Amino acid sequence: MGGVPVGGSSAGAGNAGKRPNEQLGSWFARSGWSKGELARQVNRRARQMGAHHISTDTSRVRRWLDGENPREPIPRILSELFSERFGAVVAIEDLGLRAAHQSPSVSGVDLPWAGPQTVSLLSEFSRSDLMLARRGFLGSSLALSAGPALIEPMQRWLVPSPAGDPGPAETAGASRRPSRLSEPELRLLEETTKMFRQWDAQCGGGLRRKAVVGQLHEVTDLLQEPQPAATSKRLFRCAAELAELAGWMSYDIGLQPTAQKYFVLALHAAKEAGDKPLGSYVLSSMSRQMIHLGRPDDALELIHLAQYGSRECATARTQAMLYAMEARAYANMGQPSKCKRAVRMAEDTFVDAGLDDEQDPDWIGFFSEAELNGENSHSYRDLAYVAGRSPTYASLAEPVMERAVQLFEKDTEHQRSYALNLIGMATVHLLKREPEQAVDYSERALEIAGKIRSERVNNRLRKTVEGAVREFGDVAEVHDLTDQLGAKLPEAAEAV
């Protein structure tokens, strides 16, 4: 054991020169626990985590209170125990066991690009989310980053890691140690992520979000154990995919700051996995969020970062998706020539997508011919709005979006995308001053909206109907649609 106390304290950390840990002492006093009870709870939680070497007693707890710093995983265990005791997140920093500036709950997006910190931040943020997942509660403690405050830190994902920098789980001898995870267990983790992705596409982000966050937390627990390098890399890839999906689901139900935090952490995990195409996919999700929030300049910067970082290794399908998102950004910036060029690049590149289907990772499987048409048609539709409700661009959008609707109608696995494109068709017909047709598509979208849990779909449908009422409120079909909306569209659902 090299002289390290069994209780898990730092080597050589005695009481000499230490000051009492007043923060830990304050939480301990308010808990009502005895030192023996806290020691028993720490040991019990350690066994649940598989840390059977932890054996804490009353004297060890007294030394912590006197200022001795315990080793991981004890700070994390103490954080969890006090958080559960008080029904609110009590971070490791709150217990005086780590510098406050490292807190993931209050820091923005400029995070350390290092494996151990990435794992720690993912673990604490997902735990906080699980504990405080009442709608908007966690998100209200965060702030969205935009402009240089967002773009400049994200540019660092392209900076190579220092040569010889050990991964978070590559402690002495770890790379030579056999993994506690078997190959079937690793494959099951990866397959579970695919299953969560399918659920999201079918049912919306509000149905299984907490399950995804919980799975992410479990994966970060595994990353905090010694793992062989190959296993660590696969776990980081899994964590990146789960964090991106947690961000996407948060975005879908309107928790925008929470979504951005997950996206940023996903990008960090993708970098640790050495997976540049996955990193580009995460950046495309961040770009889509910026478009939604009315920040097309930021969206374009993020997409260009994604394209630059993955142009030599991403599949044709992934590159086509990035071009389509580039077109969306240009459309919202009011740059029609660049938008049209990006649309053509997306279409031309997608032609090659069928040639490397077997090389495509699961996360890009959603980008089908239907999705390509949907994105490009929305680019034309967005151009129409930016250009002062231009009928020319609305006419460009109509046949492309109609094709997307036809394809999604046959696709039972992507109901949310089907609903969003039906709403898109409704907006195109409003631009063309065809309220009856707009009502028809809105009614079809309303039927799907009642079956899935996507606040994004609900909000877009509400805004489309509000626009129809403003312009065509005297049309009988529009009046009837408002009654249907009130009767069928659910109120904002709690994130789960």
TrEMBL record:
Region (Disordered): 1-22, 158-183
Source species, domain of life: Bacteria
InterPro entries tied to this protein: TPR-like_helical_dom_sf
Compositional bias ranges of the Gly residues kind: 1-15
Protein name as it appears in the record: NsdA
UniProt organism field: Streptomyces finlayi
